[in-house]
Specification:
Blueprint (H helix, E strand, L loop, with lengths): L25 E6 L6 E6 L6 E5 L2 H6 L3 E2 L6 E5 L4 E4 L9 E5 L5 E5 L9 E3 L12 E5 L11
Parallel strand pairs: 3-10
Antiparallel strand pairs: 1-2, 2-5, 4-9, 6-7, 7-8, 8-9
Length: about 150
């Protein structure tokens, strides 16, 4: 499901070897559309995990498919300086949606005040993941958050 890129460490090819300290997890490599933001995430194999698909206004507009790894298992390799945050009015200051200022890709959501130990990462940023093969867990965020009105 994932491949090695010349900008990623060769000793850590995603999907080809399992880290000794985490035998049931794989390093997945990810980047925004323009590749100014690159990171890797240590996760259970995607074919064994459920990915959240939320129908709230923001997740719908950004086509987000989310996983919630521990913050320590997400390593940014470059581009944190080009990320910009957006805090929807309905959940201020609970979380911040981070996107690339160059290409606009929605990279992750940082729920730092509500849950500082985790990040919500967008699986659509992962290299070579076939979205149609993912197991989706649908979340009714539309009823949790107030209705969107511009």
């Amino acid at each position: 499901m994932a491949t090695v890129d010349e900008d990623y460490p060769k000793d850590d090819p995603a999907g080809t070897t399992l880290p000794r300290e985490h035998p049931n997890k794989i390093w997945y490599h990810a980047n925004c559309h323009c590749a100014k933001v690159k990171y890797k995430a240590l996760l259970p194999p995607l074919d064994t995990d459920e990915v959240m698909s939320c129908n709230c206004s923001l997740c719908t507009r950004d086509a987000l498919l989310l996983l919630y790894p521990p913050r320590k298992d997400v390593v940014f390799l470059k581009g944190q300086d080009v990320l910009k945050g957006y805090r929807p009015a309905y959940n201020k200051p609970v979380s911040e949606h981070m996107f690339c200022t160059n290409c606009g890709s929605a990279v992750y959501n940082d729920p730092h005040l509500e849950n500082p130990d985790f990040l919500c990462i967008n699986v659509r940023m992962f290299k070579d993941v076939e979205v149609e093969r993912l197991k989706l867990k649908h979340f009714n965020g539309k009823d949790v958050n107030p209705p969107y009105s511009p």
